[in-house]
Sequence to fold (447 residues):
Amino acid sequence: MSIYSSFKQKNDIERLVFLINSEAKETINIMEICGGHTHSIMKYGLNALIKDKINFLHGPGCPVCVMPIKRIDAAICIAGLPDVILVAYGDIMRVPGTNSSLIKERAKGKDIRMIYSPLDIIKIVGDKSNKNKKIVFFAIGFETTTPMTAALLEEVITKKIENVFFYINHVLVPPPINAILDSNDSLIDGFICPGHVSVITGSGIYSDIVQKYKKSAVISGFEPYDILSGTLLIVRQINDNNPSVEIAYKRAVKEEGNKKAQDLVNKYFRVRDEFEWRGFGNIAKSGLRLRDEFKYFDAEYVFADELKALELNEDFKENTGCKCGEILRGKLKPVDCPLFGKVCIPENPVGACMVSSEGACSAYYKYRNF
Amino acid sequence: MCLAIPSKVIEIKGDSTVVVDTMGSKRLISTMLLEERANVGEYLLIHVGYAMQKIDEKEAIESLGLFKEIENKMNMG
Fold:
């Protein structure tokens, strides 16, 4: 039995759909926070199977989508500095900045490289022709991905590598969720919480959702069975009037998370006072930065003058018709955006939610299941 | 972005490195973030080149057994 296939068996799915449809008393609004969940829901048509009882609202858990335009512009600025090799995950390469994107800048001749893993950076360092280059890692991602950036920094320090720098854009899941729940018009009854973030953090980070806001928080995996069993647990919590944090992905998520990864993140990172999110504006204590003792590895410190000049001179602009902001807050669905599927298509994306393979607009367009 | 793929350990290399099989393709993975030693035959969750956690097969099987209490009710319905 493969670990994969057993979580999408037809009879199990039918059973869960039956239970959800028969147990839910009225329509329940569930936000799935993670873009990976949005994709699974659309790919397997889960939204359609339970559409009379469950309204899925798509959350801000796509790190590419929430990156504000000025951070993209800053990465483009760093890539243009002398002797810089900018290194980034593939997901962020096509996201439009004010005037350009990393992939367009690469086509124009800038040394911008796509990596699959931070470990690839060690290979770039090992190439002797890069000896005098400054290799800058445009690090993005939620709690899932931050430990791997920390692991790279640890390796850089251990191996006494002096030409790798970090442009840190790591963000945290709970602050935008709290921001959504603080807005008066929030309709959400419960959350499907991100499985792989929770592998690292454990289940404790969702305690505010339950204690402060009295909403359900169920951690789920990404197969159809995982998402539907998480949904059923939310239905039952609502029926019992008992909002709590539950793990519906126990094969991967431990209550305490991965302590070793957490310790490594705490060793190198501190929480910023605030960080700007696309669609939200500034959110307090929502992003990470390297600790001061590692500032010589921090691109925001090393290239502070250049980034300051960019800030003063550039007029950061987003396309005004694009509804990414509202979509990321669960206020609108992709089909509510006037650009969706007309001007904004995967080949010519206007907003980040269409660019990123994890964005809600990309999922809607790809699976046409709405 | 937070995609993590279950992959089977097929060989242990020294220095926090193992070879895994991800849907038929083999790759080298760092295990430096794992809290326990990885063993051949186990499944690991892999994210951007690092193993983040072992997959607990016992829990996997147990979770598939949940919600079956209603089987009879469904057949009758």
